[in-house]
Amino acid sequence: MFRVTKEFHFSASHQLGHLAPDHPCARLHGHNYIVEIELAAEDLDERGFVRDYRDLDALKTYIDTTFDHRHLNEVLGDRRVTAEQLARHFYEWCAARYPETTAARVSETPKTWAEYRPTPRP
Ligand SMILES: Nc1nc2c(c(=O)[nH]1)N=C([C@H](O)[C@H](O)COP(=O)(O)OP(=O)(O)OP(=O)(O)O)CN2
Ligand SMILES: [Zn+2]
């Protein structure tokens, strides 16, 4: 099995309004997000690729136009702005376009990563 990953960066604000009011993340704040997409394949194509990294340029465009310097509560809806929900969102966006997609990871801070990796179908 071959696995490749590519990273994308954006800055955005969010507010986890469903948390207790004394939780710091219930306040409006922002992060420099990192999104990492993982693709995997048993065999390589004729170029020796799982998939050309440059095919992911469409994801970069999507992130730049839809997420960068935006308020995520407006982009995704109030309940969907945790790192876990973002990871699932980016996984689904990529899986619809790149069948080799196996996981998506999102970092909000230098210490945290959330991953969405569906259980493989038998
Ligand atoms: N499981 C999750 N927990 C938290 C999320 C999340 O998306 N998933 N998000 C937040 C906040 O939005 C933000 O990421 C703050 O995280 P935190 O680790 O508390 O960041 P700090 O820099 O304040 O942490 P320190 O421990 O002070 O370095 C919260 N939780
Ligand atoms: Zn946050």
UniProtKB/TrEMBL annotation:
Biological or metabolic pathway of the protein: Purine metabolism; 7-cyano-7-deazaguanine biosynthesis
Gene that this polypeptide is encoded by: queD
Protein EC: 4.-.-.-
GO biological process, one term: tRNA queuosine(34) biosynthetic process
Cofactor: Zn(2+)
Identification of the protein by name: 6-carboxy-5,6,7,8-tetrahydropterin synthase
Keywords: Lyase, Metal-binding, Queuosine biosynthesis, Zinc
Family classification: Belongs to the PTPS family. QueD subfamily.
Binding of Zn(2+), residues: 14, 29, 31
The keyword Zinc belongs to this UniProt entry's keyword annotation: yes
Molecular-function GO terms, alphabetical: 6-carboxytetrahydropterin synthase activity; metal ion binding
Top EC category: lyase
InterPro entries (UniProt xref): 6-PTP_synth/QueD, 6-PTP_synth/QueD_sf
Entries under PANTHER family matching the protein: 6-PYRUVOYL TETRAHYDROBIOPTERIN SYNTHASE (PTHR12589:SF7), PYRUVOYL TETRAHYDROBIOPTERIN SYNTHASE (PTHR12589)
Domain of life assignment: Bacteria
Record field: catalytic activity: 7,8-dihydroneopterin 3'-triphosphate + H2O = 6-carboxy-5,6,7,8-tetrahydropterin + triphosphate + acetaldehyde + 2 H(+)
Catalytic residues identified in the record: 25 (proton acceptor), 69 (charge relay system), 108 (charge relay system)
Note on how the cofactor is bound: Binds 1 zinc ion per subunit.
